[in-house]
Amino acid sequence: MNLLTNSFSPWMAGTGSDADIVVSSRIRLARNLKDIPFPHLMDENTANNVTKEIEKAISSRSFKQKFGKTEFFKLVSLAPIERQVLVEKHLISPDHADGHPRRAFACTEDERIALMINEEDHIRLQVLLPGLELRQAYDIANMVDDKLEEKLFYAFSEKYGYLTACPTNTGTGIRASTMLHLPGLTYTNQIPSLLNITAKLGLTVRGLYGEGTKARGDLYQVSNQITLGLTEEEIIENVISVTRQIINQERMAREVLYRENRYALEDELWRSYGILTNARMISSDEAMNLLSKVRLGVELKILPEIERSVFNELIVATAPAYLTNLAQRNLEPAERDRERAKIIREKLKIN
Amino acid sequence: MNLLTNSFSPWMAGTGSDADIVVSSRIRLARNLKDIPFPHLMDENTANNVTKEIEKAISSRSFKQKFGKTEFFKLVSLAPIERQVLVEKHLISPDHADGHPRRAFACTEDERIALMINEEDHIRLQVLLPGLELRQAYDIANMVDDKLEEKLFYAFSEKYGYLTACPTNTGTGIRASTMLHLPGLTYTNQIPSLLNITAKLGLTVRGLYGEGTKARGDLYQVSNQITLGLTEEEIIENVISVTRQIINQERMAREVLYRENRYALEDELWRSYGILTNARMISSDEAMNLLSKVRLGVELKILPEIERSVFNELIVATAPAYLTNLAQRNLEPAERDRERAKIIREKLKIN
C-alpha cells in the first residue's frame, strides 16, 4: 500500500499561509450514527454494520467524483507496525492503532481526507492541509460531512447538537488545530507562559503526537478545547486568531535570539547541520531536535536553502515504525538509527 | 617576521617514515661554553657576551652555506604574544618565553634547526623533522654541533661528557623524542599501561607541549630520560625501538576499534568531521579533540582524504597565541573561537 511506504503526504508540502511556522492545519469532526450504541458499547455485529454503512457512503460514485478515490480497510488487516505508520503519518490516533477488531479506516489517495471508523465515535473525519489554512480545511470537511449525510443518519439533538461518546466533543463535534514549529519560543523559555495564556483562551497546546505527549522537534499543536456553545465558525476564528498571536510571538522570539545571541546561534545551527549531514547513526529524539534547529537556520537564512517539505517529510520518514516498515523486517534499534541517519543525509543533500 | 605569521613549518609536512602515526622527530642537544657560569648564575654582561659569541658562530659564511640563512634575535625584542607563538610552533620552551633579558633565539629559515640561547643551558640546539626520522635529525644536529664547535669552546669533561646546568642532561646532553598521534591507544584506554612500560624502559611519554602538560589531540611525545652512561647512538636506537613498538600497538588498537566497534566509530568520526567543517565557534580543546578524530578517520579511510600536513599545520594555526598574533590586536576569547572555526573550515575544505 502506497500509503504505508510513501513518506510524503500533501500536508507536508510547506505551502499555504505562514508556512515558515505553521506546518499544517487540521479540522476534525466527530459524528455518530443515530440509534446505534457508541463504539465502546457496541458488539461486533453492530460494529460490522456501522463499518459497512460508512464504507457504502464513501464508495458512492458521487463521493468519488467529488473527493477522489479512497482506500478503505479494517485495521486488523494491517500488521501492528503498519498501523503504527498511520499514527506517525497523523492519519489515525494511537488508540485507533490498538488492534481492536471494530476499527476501520478510510482516506483519499492524497491523504487530505481521512476517516477513523469506530474510534471513540463512529466517525472521526479529518481534513489535513499544509500551512495556516483552517478555513479551507473546514470547507472541505463540511463538504465531506454533507456528502456522508446524504447516506447516513447522524445522532443529532436540537438542544445539544451532534452527540458524541465523550461530552467534551458534543455540540459542533469540531476540533480545529494547527501544528506549529516554535523553536524561538522554546529556546527563549516562553513555552510555559504560552501554555498558560492559551489555556485561559479556551485552547490547548500539546506536543506533536497529541494529548499527553512531549513536544519533539519543537513542534506544538494548538487546538480548541470546547465544542459546545460556540458555532463552528467562532471556534475556527478563535484558533486562527490565537495561532496568529503565537506566530507573531515566535517571529519576535527568533528576532531576539538572532539579535542578542547571533554568534552562538549561528554556531549551534551550523553544528546541527554538520551533524545531520554527516552522522552515521542517530536516534529519533536527536534527529527531531537537530532537524528543528536546521529548519530554524534555513528560515533565518543562516543555513543554505532547504525546502520546507523536506523537514515535514522527515518527521515521518525518520519515525521508528515507518523505518521498520520500509525495511520489511525487524530492525534492531542500532540498525534503525543507521537507516535514519542515511535517510536524513539523502534528503538534506544540497546540490 | 614570517616565522610568526606563517603557520606552516617543514616538520608539519606529514612525510617521512610512519607518518600515519609519527608527526615529527626531534633531537635536542644541550651545550655550554667553557668557563662561563650556567645561565641561571650569570650576570647580564656575561649573557650578552655568550649571545654575541653564538651569534658570531652561526653568522659565519660557512654556517650559512651549510644550513641556510638564519634568523637571530633576543626574545625581549618580541612582544609576549609573539614569544608565545614560538612556543606553539615548538621552537622554544615555555620557560624561554618568560621575557628574561638574557634569552636569545636563532633558527634557520626552514625552522628545522633552532637554537635557544641562555635557556637552562647556553645552547639548546634542536633539529625537528617530519615522520620517524630521528637518525637523520641526529645527523643534522651533529653537523650543526660540529660547525658551532669550530668557533666555540664547549664545557666538556672526559669523565662526565658535556656539562649541563641540570645533571639529568649531563653526558651526551642529548634528548631524542618523537611526537606520536595515539587516538587508538587513547580510546582503548591503553595510555596508562603505555606510560608504565615506557618508564621501565627509561623513556617518558608526555603530552603535546612537554613536561607536566596534558595530552591534547591525543598527541604524545616519547623521549629518553637518561643522557649519561649511554652513547648518543644507543639513546636514539632506544627511542626508535620503543617508538616502533608503540606504533605497532597503536595500529593494532585502531584495527580492534574498527573491527569491534565499526558503526559507532564511523558515526563518531563523521560527526567530528561534520562539526569541524560547520562550526562557527570552537575552543582550542574541542578543536584539538575533534581534529584528532578526523585525522584518525582519514587514516582509516572512513573520511574523505585530507593531507596529513593540514592536521599538523592546524595544531599551530588554531593555537591561541598564533591566532591573536595573526589578528594583530587583542582578541576576546569568543572572537578567537570564531577565528579558529574559520581557519579550520578553510583548511579542511575539500574540493
Automatic annotation (TrEMBL), chains A, B:
Keyword rRNA processing (UniProt): no
Residues the entry annotates as binding ATP: 24-28, 90, 124, 175-179, 206-211
Presence of the UniProt keyword Transmembrane in the record: no
Motif mapping: RDXXRA motif of the pArg binding pocket involved in allosteric regulation: 336-341
Documented activity regulation: Appears to be allosterically activated by the binding of pArg-containing polypeptides to the pArg-binding pocket localized in the C-terminal domain of McsB.
GO molecular function: ATP binding; creatine kinase activity; protein arginine kinase activity
Class of enzymatic activity (EC top level): transferase
The EC number(s) this enzyme carries: 2.7.14.1
Catalytic activity: L-arginyl-[protein] + ATP = N(omega)-phospho-L-arginyl-[protein] + ADP + H(+)
Domain Phosphagen kinase C-terminal: 21-253
Protein name: Protein-arginine kinase
Species annotation: Carboxydothermus pertinax
